[in-house]
Amino acid sequence: MALLEVENLQTHFRTPSGINRAVDGVSFSVNAGETLAIVGESGCGKSVTAMSILRLIPEPPGKIAGSIRLNGRDLLNASAREMRAIRGNDISMIFQEPMTSLNPVLTIGRQLTETIRQHARLGAKAATDRAMEMLQLVGIPEPGRRLAEYRHQLSGGMRQRIMIAIALACDPKVLIADEPTTALDVTIQAQILDLMRDLKARTGAAVVLITHDLGVVAEVAERVMVMYAGRKVEEAGVGDLFRSARHPYTKGLLGAVPKLGASLAGADTRLVEIPGLVPSLKNRIAGCVFADRCASVTNVCRSVAPALELKAAGHLVACHHARREVAAA
Amino acid sequence: MTQPLLEVRNLKKHFPLRTTFFGGAQGVVHAVDGVSFSIAKGETLALVGESGCGKSTVGRAILRLFDITSGEVLIEGRRIDDLTAGQLRPLRRRVQVVFQDPFSSLNPRMRVRDILAEPIRNFGLAASDAELDKKIADLIEIVRLPGDSAGRWPHEFSGGQRQRIGIARALAAAPDLIICDEAVSALDVSVKAQIVNLLQDLQRQLGLALLFISHDLAIVEHMTHRVAVMYLGRIVEMGPKQAIFATPRHPYTKALLSAVPVPDPEAPRNRTILKGDVPSPINPPPGCHFHTRCPVAMARCRIETPVLRDHEPDHSVACHLYDAPTVGSVDG
Amino acid sequence: MTITASLPAAITARDHYAAAPDLPDIHLPVRVRGGVAGFVFRQPTVALGLFILAIMLVLAVFAPWFGTLDPTALAPAKRTRPPSMDFWFGTDAFGRDVYSRVIYGARVSLVVGFAVAFFASAIGLLIGLVSGYVRAFDSTIMRAMDGLMSIPPILLAVALMALTRASVQNVILAITIAEIPRVSRLVRGVVLSLREQPYVDAAIAAGTTTPMIIKRHILPNTLAPLTVQATYICGSAMIVESILSFIGAGTPPMIPSWGNIMADGRALWQVKPYIIFFPAVFLSLTVLAVNLLGDGLRDALDPRMAKRL
Known about the structure:
The structure holds 3 protein chains of 3 kinds.
Chain A: E1 4-15, E2 18-30, E3 35-39, H1 46-53, E4 62-70, E5 73-74, H2 80-89, E6 91-94, H3 108-119, H4 124-137, H5 143-147, H6 156-168, E7 174-178, H7 186-203, E8 206-211, H8 214-220, E9 223-228, E10 231-237, H9 238-243, H10 248-256, H11 299-303, E11 309-312, E12 315-317
Helix pairs in contact in A: 3-4, 4-6
Chain B: E1 6-19, E2 25-39, E3 44-48, H1 55-62, E4 70-75, E5 78-79, H2 85-92, E6 95-98, H3 112-122, H4 129-142, H5 159-172, E7 177-181, H6 189-206, E8 209-214, H7 217-223, E9 226-231, E10 234-240, H8 241-246, H9 251-259, E11 309-312, E12 315-317
Parallel strand pairs in B: 3-8, 3-9, 6-7, 7-8
Antiparallel strand pairs in B: 1-2, 1-4, 4-5, 9-10, 10-12, 11-12
Helix pairs in contact in B: 3-4, 3-5, 4-5, 5-6
Chain C: H1 10-16, H2 35-42, H3 44-61, H4 98-133, H5 135-149, H6 153-163, H7 168-195, H8 198-205, H9 210-246, H10 258-265, H11 274-301
Helix pairs in contact in C: 2-3, 3-4, 3-11, 4-5, 4-7, 4-9, 4-11, 5-7, 6-7, 7-9, 8-9, 9-10, 9-11, 10-11
């Protein structure tokens, strides 16, 4: 049994102009100590998936169906009170914008110790010691001084380190990171990715990394799941995915990103374009969600939604035309 | 040497930090602190650097969206930074801009036709209404928007399509230079590729020069001919893209390149991870601005500001590591 | 295996290709309604506000046709009658029909509300545009507006009324002056943020002159928040008018207005509460309708604008 198992997750939003099927039948699992990256473009449902796991979706207008099991326990049946205990203790989350996720009128120390004391029964002194320890862990110099500071006194990279410290304060089993480095500069991003790799090795937490940046995926993930228009279209080990992507959308994504050093050989290369637009999630899509933009589309793609099938060892693809390389057991 | 299309000489822009009750200024942000470069006709120069390095301010200064503190901006040898608003207006046609955010860069209360007609009318580029309509139809076609776009409102378009409208508006003035201020940064991966390809095609077809301001080094390498790397308001290294990306000289350029995540899990990673953050441009460090984070900083770097000088032909570096023991001519 | 280009039907296709399991919709289907029903469904507050306001407008415009008597006709024999079939809302201390007075009173409230909203918005818009665009005038104008704003609008209106003769025009003028600072502050704020918009920078690069930038890019984008603000001003102006009339500093006593009717019923309110009750209900309903309209407009035009108002 995997640590976190998500099965047939559906998160739909009821809007005046129709039902928005933001996530529509997504299944995946994460093991302890593993990093799963969820990749896709804006509107593909990757962030909604993350919010659904923590049940942070406002209901209504949202509604979640399917099952989300942490250590076998279904989070969708947990009460609001039980969920509060799970958030932070068992699963914690890092957001994209560290500026807005810290309270501006409380000191860093207060926010950190409060989180620690909410989840672990520690005295004030012990909580402060633990907070110092956490700041040291995330590589913040002079932790004693930083504890007394407010968020506006910290740089963007520093704030994201604090957010990671708060997220890790209670030794969560699962850490969900939603675009943790997107708002940061590239040299700071390198620091934070380095830190995340290092911390995962030390704490053994499972990490669900949500990102649109394939470079970040290649840096830190072990397994990758590609989402498009609310569905999962491909999942594979990171090496496998980058070497031999099978879904036309994944191939398109990989071709659309220039690689540093690739154009120095002299040949003028052209980036791969994926023509057209993402379909509206308010209309039910009968066939494959990618059919309208796919170069190798056939009639069957428009009428039958492809099942997610094992096309090679550890490589799931939802495409009628992806070749199978191993006989299904 | 032929005259460059655009030349920027020792450009400085300091912003007052805070105005007091009586209108005086307290503190100064050294956004751009002495930047010089030139762009030839049909050439792409990329201005790269991290947020707060002043790259966008350079673009806005060339557009004269504010008055510069000192320095000169020349178009084909003619100074434009000291012209009055009225004298400058006809010359504005030659330099246009595409902004980062496809949503706030279009007036939500103007139809696409009116957005595109604005520069054409202002610069008197169409003699009649029929010619105007023809020009607008051509622009819509050249940026590959749907044929019926002219009568529609910006909110009817996706982010990528809006960016095409922004590009069409820039092209409407028939410019010689387009400043792309993070023009593809806010777009999704697949849309980004479409816009990058479009910009490259347009440059080839129309012989445009581009000033490509970006923090995305992989896109820059893909797009550009030459690169200028900025750090805290100064250019630290400048040269053709081969030189910058294959044989970077400045320690900051090296660190910046090594920090870019490569979308290939099997690529070798030998990374220089810089410590700390970019210092504040309000009180930039003395000497070389980079010395606080530089892995190879020397005592001299804390005192003496390195000058940007040619290291190889066309490849200039501002770093004491590359100062020749016997100082030759500074202006090569 | 190659796929033939024309697979006949989905049924056959299902035999050949693995299909994803069909997942049900977890919400009840949304019926997207058009027309009036759709509007009422999507914007119930705006619809309700418009409905009440429309009734008030019809009553005011066609007051003589709604079974009213002359609202100023005195009938000492029929003083202080309670509501009955003859006098729906009863009669006041002079025997005047309260129903007729309330219906005619809608005219004053609506005229004052709409006129103040219009003039305060127009003048406030002008001041706000100048202040937001011409740096040289900005601090002077804004300090003057701050000064005006430091006086409560009602006190300011009372003071202004004290300087002039009681008339509906002067009431409108006094309330307008009291409301202008709020509008000009709002417009200035909007103008300052619009000036920073990339599309304004693009227009400058495209050679557009400053007057054209204001006309084409700034002005149209201030109208949405201004319209919302105007509805709030309209509601507030109706209340201020009633207060002024109630304390005898507003609409002349011979013109029936809701404030005047309540003022007339003040002395008798413990024994004859209906004289005050009916105009008060009409006033509250109308102001509520205007504010509902404003809230709905604000949400419909731009949710982010909600924070600025």
